[in-house]
Structure formats: C-alpha cells, structure tokens
Write a structure and sequence with these properties.
Blueprint lengths: L1 E6 L7 H15 L4 E5 L3 H5 L3 E4 L26 H13 L4 E6 L1 H14 L3 E5 L15 H22 L2 E6 L6 H10 L3 E3 L7 H14 L5 E6 L11 E6 L5 E3 L2 H13 L3 E5 L11 H19 L5 E6 L2 E6 L12 H8 L4
Parallel strand pairs: 1-2, 1-4, 4-5, 5-12, 6-8, 6-11, 7-8
Antiparallel strand pairs: 2-3, 9-10, 12-13
Helix pairs in contact: 1-9, 5-6
The chain binds 6-O-phosphono-beta-D-fructofuranose.
Length: about 350
C-alpha cells in the first residue's frame, strides 16, 4: 500500500510526531508498503512536490516542532484546474490512501475531495486552537497551553514588581481554549474569550475591586485574539484574507489596555504572544496523542476506512465521518468558563 501524507494550515507542535508514527506503523505493517510526503499542504499534491518518507528521513523528528513537510494555506478549490491537477498527481503517484493532517480548512478540503472526487482520505485533527469539532483534543493544544502558562507565570513577577496590569493576548480565532486553559493554569485575574463578548465595564469593575478592595497592585488579563467587545467587531491587523477567507487577527489586547489605562489610571502593558505559541518542541502529552493519531490513521487506511477523521473521545480513539465536522467549531465548555470566573478579581 502507498500512503500519501500532508500537513496543511498553521503549523503546530506534534506534526512531526504524527508523520513519524505514520511512517513507522505503515512500514512495519507490511513489506513493500510505502509513504510519500506531499510538501506544503495541498500545494504539494497540486504541483507534484513530494519527498520520500522512510525510516531514515523521519529519524529524530519526534521532538522537533514544525513540520518536515512544510505547510501552507493553499485551497485547491480556489481554482478548478488545481483540483484536476491534484487528482492526476494522486493517481500518478499511485496513492492508495491519503492522510491529511490539518484543522478546519484542510479537513474541509479533505471532505470535498473525499465525497465529491472519491479520494481515499483519512483526516487527523491538528491545531493549537483545539477548535475542531467532534474530538476532545487536537494535538498542539497542550503544548500551546504550557507555553502560555509559562509566559503568564513570568509576566506575574514583572507585573507585581512594577504594580502594573498586563494584558496577555493568546491565539484563539473562534474559540478561547488556549486563553481559558492557560488563564486557569496561570491564575489570571480576568480571562476573555470569543465565546462571550467583552463587557468593558464588568472588566473594569473586577479590576477595581481587586485593586481597591483586595489591595492588589497588579493584575493579569488574558484575552484570546478572537475576542471582541460587546458593541464592537473582531480586531484585525489589516483587511487581507487568506485562501480560505480568514483575516489576520490581532490588536484586541492593545485596545483593552488603552481603555483600562484611560478609565482606571492603572499603568498597563501588553504582551502579544503570537507565533511563539506554535513553535518548538511538543509536550509529552502531544507527542503521545500525535503518535496515537498517526498509528490509528494507518490502521484505518489499511482497513479501507476512508472519508473519516480520527478523533479522541475520553481517552479512546474513534472515527468520525468527515462530513460531520465541516463548518462546525468546537467552542469552549462554558461550564469551565463559569468555573474560571470564580477566580476572577
Ligand atoms: O490556526 C491556528 C492559528 O494559530 C490561529 O490561532 C491564528 O489566528 C492563526 O493560526 C494565525 O495564522 P498565521 O500563521 O497565518 O498568521
């Protein structure tokens, strides 16, 4: 059997661990099996840009961040001829099964190629945002939460020394999982997420009561980049959109800081964590999850189970039809957000 593998969308820690698991599992399963890496997401299949994935080329990559295959936000459906080229290359390369590792956009393309073009696809959910429907966890999320928690710990000591408020901006386009988990783990005083529009008066009241009643002289506010004010819109860097129509988010933390400083007179600083959340070595949890996803995806491919995404439910690996995840976002558990509020202020 020949398996093709690609990584699409934003990178995240654990991609190489999945690639390694796919190769090791596939080659061990049966002599003659082969794995072809498609470079830079769907672009590699459109342009026939490949690399041989074998024991040697995947040796030592388990702890490495990023993806040895490269990634891109290429959308083959932007151009009719790209879908045709992609199908031709899929056929000419002799691919029997394609493992597509990605988030909502990559898996959305996988869904169409599977249902409309008949390609044999197994999806694996990836994104630090943890917002892919039908799975409890995407790999990459745990690492990002650990990075952000560590940053919050560090920002605490400087905020306290300078008697400042620090507003920390975490990634999280449609869902506030990273802000919520790291905010709880890091003891943030306010956590703001896309799921609940920001009431600025409420934020100021919380901070005021913390400073005036509890006598605290510093605070940490964690905000997800996709959060917006009750009466406002999401804050974007510019008007450019990628091939899937997404704008670049960023700037909500500065807006918040400006208002807090102006309304309350507390000295305020901003830290935008940005792509540092996606870089570097995966956590042990993500290495294990990535390894399980990769090996299970090969099992599914070998047994001819296509048009599905592998997923984690509880601690069990399951499969979900690709059609069931399209267009859905897994937003945060609001019960957990309510719990987090217990510790605000
Ligand atoms: O896909 C996850 C993500 O990290 C989002 O949280 C963020 O908005 C986006 O990617 C950033 O994308 P880019 O790497 O294209 O700037």
């Amino acid at each position: 059997m020949t398996i093709g593998v690609l990584t699409g969308g934003g990178d995240c820690p654990g991609l190489n661990a999945v690639i390694r698991a796919v190769v090791r599992k596939c080659l061990k399963q049966k002599q003659g099996n082969k794995v072809i890496g498609l470079k830079n997401g769907w672009k590699g299949l459109i342009s026939n840009d490949t690399m041989d994935l074998n024991l040697e080329s995947t040796s030592g990559i388990l702890p490495k961040g990023g993806t040895i295959l490269g990634t891109s936000r290429t959308n083959p459906y932007k151009n009719e001829s790209d879908v045709r080229k992609l199908k031709e290359n899929y056929k000419n390369l002799g691919i029997d099964a394609l493992i597509a590792i990605g988030g909502e956009d990559t898996l959305g393309v996988a869904t169409k190629l599977s249902s409309e073009e008949g390609l044999n696809i197994v999806g694996i959910p990836k994104t630090i945002d943890n917002d892919v429907a039908a799975t409890d966890y995407t790999f990459g999320f745990d690492t990002a939460v650990n990075i952000v928690t560590n940053c919050i710990d560090r920002l605490h000591t400087t905020a306290e020394s300078h008697n400042r408020i620090i507003v920390v901006e975490a990634m999280g386009r449609h869902a506030g999982w990273i802000a919520l988990y790291s905010g709880i783990a890091g003891g943030a005083d306010v956590i703001l997420i896309p799921e609940e529009p920001i009431d600025i008066n409420e934020v100021c009241n919380i901070l005021e009561s913390r400073h005036e009643k509890r006598g605290k002289t510093f605070s940490i506010v964690v905000v997800a980049e996709g959060a917006r004010f009750k009466e406002g819109d999401i804050v974007t860097k510019d008007q450019d959109v990628d091939q899937f129509g997404h704008v670049k988010l960023g700037g909500i933390s500065q807006q918040l800081a400006n208002i807090i400083e102006e309304k309350m007179g507390y000295e305020t600083r901003v830290t935008v964590l940005g792509h540092i959340q996606r870089g570097g070595t995966p956590s042990a949890f993500d290495r294990v999850l990535s390894t399980r996803y990769g090996a299970y995806a090969v099992d599914m491919a070998m047994s001819g189970n296509f048009g599905i995404m592998v997923a984690l439910r509880g601690n069990e690996l399951i499969t979900v039809p690709l059609e069931e995840i399209g267009g859905k976002t897994r937003t945060v558990d609001m019960k957990l957000y309510e719990l987090a509020k217990t510790f605000f202020g």
